[in-house]
């Protein structure tokens, strides 16, 4: 269910790499790339789409997504659910194009470019490094258009600066989880990981109605901001993910709880 590499051109590209591409209603393949496709969603994608549709994150996830459990890490991901078994069409695709176009997912914005993240050696040790590649499906005629781009100008045109900024920390969490030597995720933690990543409305209730604020020493200003600011809540979710995945000590347990916790325990709050 994760994006296929079948039509990926196996050449690493940079922001300066050039290509010709165009997509418009008059092209005969219009909307074909929106069928039978596995679109991995990010937390920021969910935030944008639920706001666009005026529904809760829980309703969005139940109606428009499926859960994929990665075979290697056992990490849960939300994947856009294709509608209509025969056509396998994206639920937001219409004859006129995408009806959530201004809030479409990052992977849709990047197409026909793909973006990856890998670990490279830097001056001070291993660091995350971005790379790009082209996706060339036989059914896509966009490469026959004359408009020339660099990957950088394509990113700007598709409004990806904000998406990349919002997705950066979450993507790095996935990269670190995929590193050799990382233990598989405890299946009992999958619902918690999924909620902190995608179900923002339920995660807000979890933060404010469970013992999270009693257990962790969180700045008062951050707490107040999370009550109304969904971006602040999403970023706290990333902190929480790093903590319960044992990637970083991003949260500090209050002293009264450290006295009763056993060495090596992870205090998570009540789901």
What does this structure look like?
The protein is of the alpha+beta class and about 270 residues long. It is about 35% helix and about 15% strand. The chain has helices at about 45-55, 55-65, 105-110, 150-155, 160-175, 190-195, 200-210, 210-215, 220-230, 230-245, 255-260; strands at about 20, 65-70, 75-80, 95, 95-100, 115-120, 125-135, 150. The strands form 4 sheets. It has a two-stranded antiparallel sheet with strand order 1-8. Strands 2-3 form a two-stranded antiparallel sheet. It has a two-stranded antiparallel sheet with strand order 4-5. Strand 4 (about 95) and strand 5 (about 95-100) form a beta hairpin. It is globular, with a radius of gyration of 20 Å.
Q: For the residues shown, what is the average pLDDT? A: 91
Number of strand segments: 8
Rg over CA atoms, rounded to whole Å, is 20 Å
Strand coverage percent: 5-15%
The backbone outline, from C-alpha atoms, is globular
Order of helices and strands: EHHEEEEHEEEHHHHHHHH
Strand order of the largest sheet: 1-8
The biggest beta sheet reads:
2 strands, antiparallel
Uncertain parts: none
Number of helices: 11
- Helix percent reads 25-40%
Summing up helix and strand content along with how strands pair, one would put the structural category as: alpha+beta
How far from one another are the termini?
28 Å
Question: How do the strands and helices of this protein lay out in sequence?
Answer:
Blueprint: E1 18-20, H1 43-53, H2 57-64, E2 65-69, E3 76-80, E4 93-94, E5 97-98, H3 106-110, E6 113-122, E7 125-134, E8 148-150, H4 151-157, H5 160-177, H6 190-197, H7 200-209, H8 212-215, H9 220-228, H10 230-244, H11 255-258
Antiparallel strand pairs: 1-8, 2-3, 4-5, 6-7
Helix pairs in contact: 5-10, 9-10
């Amino acid at each position: 269910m994760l994006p296929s590499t079948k039509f990926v051109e196996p050449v690493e590209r940079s922001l300066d790499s050039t290509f010709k591409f165009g997509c418009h209603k008059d092209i005969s393949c219009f909307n074909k790339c929106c069928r039978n496709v596995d679109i991995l969603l990010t937390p920021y994608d969910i935030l944008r789409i639920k706001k666009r549709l005026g529904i809760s994150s829980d309703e969005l996830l139940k109606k428009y997504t499926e859960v994929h459990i990665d075979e290697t890490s056992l990490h849960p991901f939300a994947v856009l659910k294709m509608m209509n078994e025969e056509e396998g069409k994206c639920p937001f695709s219409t004859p006129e194009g995408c009806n959530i176009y201004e809030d479409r997912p990052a992977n849709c914005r990047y197409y026909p470019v793909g973006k990856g993240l890998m670990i490279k050696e830097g001056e001070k040790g291993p660091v995350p490094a971005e790379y790009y590649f082209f996706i060339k499906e036989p059914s896509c005629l966009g490469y026959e258009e004359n408009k020339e781009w660099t990957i950088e100008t394509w990113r700007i045109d598709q409004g990806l600066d904000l998406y990349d900024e919002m997705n950066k920390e979450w993507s790095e969490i996935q990269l670190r989880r995929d590193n050799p030597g990382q233990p598989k995720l405890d299946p009992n933690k999958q619902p918690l990981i999924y909620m902190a990543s995608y179900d923002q409305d339920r995660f807000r209730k979890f933060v404010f109605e469970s013992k999270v604020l009693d257990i962790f020493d969180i700045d008062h200003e951050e707490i107040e901001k999370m009550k109304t600011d969904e971006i602040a809540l999403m970023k706290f979710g990333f902190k929480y993910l790093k903590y319960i995945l044992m990637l970083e000590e991003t949260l500090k347990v209050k002293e009264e709880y450290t006295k009763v916790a056993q060495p090596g325990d992870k205090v998570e709050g009540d789901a």
